[in-house]
Amino acid sequence: MKFKPPSKRIKTDSSISSSSSLPSTQSRDAELNTMRKSMVHEAQNANNVSLRIQQARDHAVAQAQQDGCTGNFRVFNSPFGNYLVPVIPTRAELGG
Q1: pLDDT digits (tens, 9 = 90+) for 13-45
Q2: Per-residue CA distances from 48 to 4, 42, 43, 78, 93 (Å)
Q3: In the chain, where are the structural domains located?
Q4: pLDDT score, position 34
Q5: Where does the record place the region Disordered (predicted)?
Q6: Which of 51, 94, 82 has its CA nearest to residue 73?
Q7: Fewest beta carbons within 10 Å, which of 6, 26, 35, 61?
Q8: CA distance 52 to 24
Q9: Positive or negative, the Cα torsion across 11, 16, 17, 21?
Q10: Cα four-point dihedral sign 56, 62, 66, 68
Q11: How far apart are CA 54 and CA 45, in angstroms?
């Protein structure tokens, strides 16, 4: 008796068609809308962060002016909260 190897052909399920594996237009549109909404939310969040930094910087400048600071300061935005940095002039800048 000889052993007959199984057929190498793959049986396909007739209920699965190639078109059913593609996402429908409605599901693609819903997915795109979800992605757009998340991108808008991220942009608004970034704007809120930069607005908070700008407000804190402006407050720091106003506080320094109220305290009577007459020195030179460099003002910049920083995520660490260092909004005023004293500028120490060099001898060349002082004309000496």
Answers
A1: 655 555 555 567 777 777 777 777 666 666 666
A2: 72, 10, 9, 14, 38
A3: 26-94
A4: 75
A5: 1-43
A6: 82
A7: 6
A8: 43
A9: negative
A10: positive
A11: 14
pLDDT of residue 43: 64
Question: pLDDT band at residue 95, thresholds of 50, 70 and 90?
Answer: confident
Residue 85 pLDDT > 80: no
User: Please, how many CA atoms are within 13 Å of residue 23, restricted to the half-sphere of its CB?
Assistant: 8
Contact (Cβ atoms closer than 8 angstroms) between residue 77 and residue 54: yes
- Which residue is associated with the tokens 């608004």? 44
Tokens of 26: 């409605």
The rounded distance, in Å, linking the Cα atoms of 58 and 76 is 10
